[in-house]
Each structure stands twice: as C-alpha cells, then as structure tokens.
Design brief:
The structure holds 2 protein chains of 2 kinds. By secondary structure, chain A is of the alpha/beta class. Chain A folds into 2 domains: 227 residues, Rossmann fold, CATH 3.40.50.300; 72 residues, no CATH class. Chain A is 31% helix and 24% strand. Chain A is built from 11 helices and 12 strands. The longest helix of chain A is centred in the middle third of the chain and has 18 residues. In chain B, helix 1 packs antiparallel against helix 13, helix 5 crosses helix 8 and helix 10 packs antiparallel against helix 13. The radius of gyration of chain B is 24 Å and the shape is globular. Chain B has 2 domains: 73 residues, no CATH class; 218 residues, MetI-like fold (Orthogonal Bundle), CATH 1.10.3720.10. The termini of chain B are close together. In chain B, 77% of the residues lie in helices and 0% in strands. The longest helix of chain B has 39 residues. By secondary structure, chain B is mainly α. The chains are: A alpha/beta, B mainly alpha. The interface between A and B is medium-sized, with 29 and 21 residues. The structure holds adenosine-5'-triphosphate and magnesium ion.
Chain lengths: 330, 321
C-alpha cells in the first residue's frame, strides 16, 4: 500500500511549537515532519510528555494561548498551509474538514448542554442547516455511531450516558460534517477493554465507509498494530522513527523504538494495561533544558561519542522508513 | 418539584420560630427602652412611666411577652409601632417598594456588569485590561459602603451639584407622570451606584475565577475544535458552567446585600425599609423592629429558594425532589 505523493492529505514540515512560560521556553515540538495519506491511519506513539498532543493541537491551532505558539513550520492540508491562514479561515476548517476527539469522554462533552444540541450546533455552523433539520441530522448521526434510541438520547444530558456512549457521541460530533481527517488523541485510553475494542471497531468501519484519514495518538502499541497503516514514534518533541506498521514491528531502527517493542509482551494478545508503553530505564529529558546532541543519549544502550556532540537528522534509511539515529546515517 | 417547594416552605416555620425567639430576647435585653425614648428629655413622673410601661406590656416577664407576641404573629398581626401607633405591617408595606426598587436595580447592574467584566477579565488573564479591572474591583470592594456613599455625595452632589443626594423625589417640585419617573431615576443614581460598586466586586472576582477554571476544561477545547467563534465558545459553552458557583455565592450573600441596602438607604435618606429599620433601632420600637426582622428573614429565605431553583435551571445534573 504505497502512498503516492498526490495521495497525501496532510503533511507537516519542520513544525516547532513552543510554550513561553515565566521567561522559559518549553520546546515541546521541535522540528516534526509527518505525512498522512488519504484513507490511511497514522499512529503517533511516544512516552508521556513527548509532544504528541501538542503536535495534534498544532494542526488545528488549538495550542493554549497566549503561552503556546507555532514558531516555525508548515502544516499543509489539501494544498493550504494551516499555519499561516487567518483565524477565521481556520475556524471554517475545524470541525468541518478536520475534526478532533479527545481522551476523556467524561469531560469532553459540555455538562449543561443537551446531546442533540452539541451535535446540531456543528452542522448548523458548517452546513447551514436550520435548527429542526440539524436536530434530525444529529439523531441520524447518533444512530450511525451505534447508539440505541437516538431520538430519546438527543434530549438527554451527558451525565445520563456511560463513558463508552459519550465517546460515541464525540465521534458523532467529529464526523457530523463528513471531515476528510480525524485526529483522535488517545480516544480509548480512558475506557475499559471491551468498550475500547468497540470504539476502535466503530472507527475502523467508519473509515472503510467514508475513506477518512485518521491521526491516531496512543500509548498502546497494540492499538497501533491493529489500527494503523503507518507509525511515527515521537521522543522529546521530535519524530525519531517513521515507517509502515509491519516494517516498524519487524525491523525497528531507532534504539528507542527497539526498547519500546522489546518490553511489549505478545502484541497478538488482547490489550491489557501492561501492554501500554513500558518504562524504559531513565526519564524523558526536560524540554526546557535539552542536552546538546541526541535527546535520547542518556538512556540509549548504543550511545557513542557523536551522539553527545551532534544531533542526528531524520534520515531515510530504506524506502518509506526514516530514523533519527547516527547508527543509521550512511 | 412542587413537593420540594412545599417542603422548603414548611421548613421555614420552625426556622423562623427559633430565630424570632432569639432575636426577641436579644432586642429586649439591649440597653435602653422605648419608654425613655417617648418621654425624651422633658422628663416625667414615676406614675406616668409605670403607666406607659404597663400599656406596652413591658412590665410582664419576658417569656409572657414572647408568648403573647408569637400568638399575635401567628394570626398575621405584627402589632403596632410604639412610636407612631401605626400597624407595623402597614409601615413595612409602605416602605417596601422604595427598597425593592433600589435592590432590584442594583442587582441588575452589579450582576450584568460583574459577569460582563469578569468574562472580559478572564479572556486574557494578566493582560493590562485584566489587571486594571482587578485593581478597580478590589478598590471598590475594600471601601466601606457608607464612606463610598458619602464620597459620591460630596463629589457629585456637593461639589459638582449634578445629582440630588437625599431622598427619592423632590417633594417641592411636585412632579407628576413622566417627570416624576425621571426625578426618581435621578435620585436613584448615587445610591444605586454605591451599591453596585460594592457588590460588583464580589460577582466580578467570582466570575473571573470560575471562568478561568472552566476555560481549562476539555469541553471548551472541544467547542473550539468544532470551529465555533470565540464569543460562542466563551458565552454558550464556558459562561453557563462558570455561572454555577456565582449563583450559589450570590445566593449565600443575600443577607449582606440587604445589610448593604440598609446602610446605603441611611446615607442617602432613601425612604425604604433600611431607613425604617434604622429609626426603629434608634427608638427601641420593639414591635416595628421585630416585624422588620421577620420580614427580612422571609426575604432572605425566599432569596435562597430562588437561588436553588435557578441553580437547578442552570445545571441539569441537579434535580430537586
Ligand atoms: N499549556 C502548556 N503550557 C506549558 N507547557 C505545555 C503546555 N502543554 C504542553 N506542554 C508541554 O509540552 C510537552 C508535551 O506535552 P504533550 O501534552 O504534547 O505530551 P503528550 O505526548 O501528549 O503526553 P501524554 O501522553 O501524557 O498525553 C510537555 O512537556 C508539556 O509540559
Ligand atoms: Mg497527550
């Protein structure tokens, strides 16, 4: 399933997103390159704090203001650089061409607004449907994401729904304007195992139907193996490896990826909590104060002189397989 | 819901009974008594004092006085003022509209301004605008009501001579119709401004804090991710949630609102309940004082009830049974 250049829906080039807090600069994302093909799922994995959410929120320019800022880079979506368009234009893309769902279904719905309205407001906004039709549309969307008795549910409030149902509602909201791209930031982490599997199934079948592209952020390599076509591994604000899913699991190049995979028992088994990203010895370096050279140097079993002096570039090692490591720069 | 309302109203009865008893005892134990006030400086013989005391029933033991009073109140009779001999209820109802006018207008202003400035403040925390609003609100909160009132009287009334400073209407001018309305409005400016400045601060600070907390919530991020405009995000998605704690605290502060009104009415000689209370205390007019107390207690209780209902209206998670 090779992706041709013209099949690329979104490409991120040299993205830098920093947070300016109390005179310090947290370089949460520093030079990320990514691309997502049409109809494909890209898994984005990495330890907590590696910058996955900041990358995702940069795409929709939802970085917390005024501390956070995209300082450099291009985010090209269907030929438009999202990093440089006007805010008003950006608002027409949010929820319309690109949607996002978040980790916590318990807190991502507004507790004082009815379910139906939370879906309907998006289609009124982007599709210009009148109130009555927007609500009917919301009912249809609820049915589509597998919620029973949708006509009754639209009049309910979030606290009357279970966590799994709320995440379905979130998916209904996200997909209501038939976007070309969905960003899912750990959509199943807060759900229990059976519900997790149901939500992933739903996302897969919706993707088959609509050909939507998905950027799937997760801690769970099992989810990646199941859902993604390609994977990007993130470490301390950079992509350290980027490959097709099968390639990455068979021939990881970066020592960090190797470490991740080594400590994952049986990817073919049902997801369990211990299959979450394992702790590799040591901790992620502070993005406020990075050492010169490779960010992984202090935890790397294969570290050598050059790693401490110079930062390795993200290099294409074999076809469609990039890694950021001096071991693989030829 | 109706059942809940009835329940709440029923609870009021023992609550009021207890409160009335305590206040009755406190009022009668306070130094000074109405006989001295009525007789005044002129002096009177012992016989006259004894007769007046007996007339008012003040020679009986306190618990007999209390029982008699409670029995009387139970039939809806609040008694007669010692000083003016008018029925207490009539005196109170006579003054009520003036106070309600003042309270309602100041509530409208302080809530709309407080919430509005609070939202504005929270939109860009620690910006110049936010900091200016903070300084202004803290200053107006720290200043005592009566002092602020007098300051305004001095500034706008005395030196600038723009606005009337005393009372509710200019009796000498004898306005009627629309002119009367205008005249009352002019008289209202300073007392309403005083009360608004004072109450605004609390509402503003609460709204700001509550908004800042709410805009950090995930559903606000979701609202932005939907492509909604910043105004829709702030008002439709954030403010409704942020108002919940504001409503609660304002409801709890209802008593302070009334106390502030009493002080302000005194400063501006506003012919309302506050002024009436002040006079009643001064004259040790026990029946009027007790009547006022009962009336204000009911007002506070109703205020709290309205708060609860408003809360239920704003927050679907709350259901009263
Ligand atoms: N609003 C903010 N202000 C300051 N720093 C921030 C802010 N948001 C994120 N960061 C910093 O950016 C870095 C990356 O955070 P991010 O949320 O992207 O991590 P993540 O990979 O999504 O982690 P997780 O798996 O825990 O969700 C962290 O070090 C974090 O401290
Ligand atoms: Mg995250």
């Amino acid at each position: 399933m090779a992706v041709q250049a013209d099949d690329i829906l979104l490409s991120i080039e040299d993205l830098h997103t920093y947070f300016f807090v109390d005179g310090n600069v947290a370089k949460s994302v520093r030079g990320v390159d990514l691309s997502l093909g049409r109809g494909q799922t890209l898994g984005l994995v990495g330890e907590s704090g590696s910058g996955k959410s900041v990358t995702a929120q940069s795409i929709l320019r939802l970085i917390q203001q005024p501390a956070g800022r995209i300082v450099q880079g291009r985010i090209v979506f269907e030929g438009t650089d999202l990093a440089s368009i006007a805010e008003e234009e950006m608002r027409r893309i949010r929820g319309n061409s690109i949607s996002m769902i978040f980790q916590e279904p318990m807190t991502s719905l507004n507790p004082v607004i009815r379910i139906g309205e939370q879906i309907a407001e998006v289609v009124r906004l982007h599709r210009g449907l009148p109130a009555r039709e927007a609500l009917d549309y919301a009912t249809d969307m609820l049915a589509k994401v597998g919620i029973a008795e949708p006509a009754r549910r639209i009049a309910q409030f979030p606290h009357e729904l279970s966590g799994g149902m709320r995440q379905r509602v979130m998916i209904a909201i996200a997909l209501s304007c038939a976007p070309r791209m969905l960003i899912a930031d750990e959509p199943t982490t807060a759900l229990d195992v059976t519900i997790q599997a149901q939500i992933l199934d739903l996302m897969r079948s919706l993707q088959r139907e609509s050909g939507i592209s998905i950027l799937l952020i997760t801690h769970d390599l099992g989810v990646v193996a199941e859902m993604a076509h390609r994977v990007a591994v993130m470490y301390a604000g950079q992509i350290v490896e980027h490959a097709d899913v099968a390639t990455l699991f068979e021939r990881p190049l970066h020592p960090y990826t190797e470490g991740l995979l080594a400590s994952v028992p049986g990817l073919d088994r049902a997801p369990t909590p211990d299959r979450m990203l394992p702790a590799i010895a040591g901790t992620v370096p502070n993005v406020l104060d990075l050492p010169p050279g490779c960010a992984f140097q202090d935890r790397c079993p294969k570290v050598h002189d050059r790693c401490r002096r110079e930062e390795p570039p993200l290099a294409t090692v074999e076809l469609r397989h990039d890694a950021r490591c001096w071991l693989h720069v030829v | 819901m109706t059942l809940y309302l009835l329940q709440r109203l029923l609870y009021l009865v023992p609550l009021l009974l207890g409160a009335v008893t305590i206040v009755f005892v406190l009022v009668h134990m306070a130094p000074g008594n109405p006989v001295d006030y009525i007789i005044g400086e002129s002096g009177a013989d012992k016989e006259m004092i004894a007769r007046l005391t007996a007339d008012m029933g003040l020679d009986r033991p306190l618990y007999i006085q209390l029982l008699r009073y409670l029995g009387q109140v139970a039939t809806g009779n609040l008694g007669y003022s010692f000083v003016s001999n008018m029925p207490v209820l009539e005196l109170i109802l006579d003054r009520l509209p003036a106070t309600l006018l003042l309270m309602a207008s100041q509530l409208v202003f302080s809530i709309s301004l407080g919430v509005g400035l609070g939202v504005l403040s929270a939109r860009r925390p620690n910006s110049l605008l936010d900091n200016s609003i903070t300084v202004f609100s803290l200053a107006s909160f720290a200043v005592p009501v009566f002092w602020l009132g007098q300051l305004l009287i001095l500034g706008f009334g005395y030196y600038l001579d723009w606005l009337p400073i005393q009372g509710m209407v200019d009796l000498r001018a004898g306005y009627t119709g629309f002119d009367l309305v205008l005249d009352v409005a002019r008289h209202m400016v300073l007392p309403v401004l005083t009360l608004t400045l004072y109450n605004l601060a609390l509402i503003l600070r609460l709204t700001r804090g509550s908004m800042l907390e709410v805009v950090g919530q995930e559903y606000v991020k979701v609202a932005r991710a939907k492509g909604l405009s910043e105004n829709t995000v702030m008002i439709k998605h954030a403010l409704r949630n942020a108002l919940l704690p504001v409503v609660t605290v304002v409801g709890l502060e209802f008593r302070a609102l009334i106390a502030g009104a009493v002080l302000t009415e005194t400063v501006f000689a506003w012919p309302g309940l506050g002024r009436l209370t002040f006079d009643a205390i001064h004259a040790r007019d026990y029946p009027l004082l007790m009547g006022m107390f009962i009336f204000i207690s009911v007002l506070v209780a109703v205020g709290n009830l309205v708060t609860d209902l408003l809360y239920a209206l704003l927050d679907p998670r709350i259901r009263y049974r």
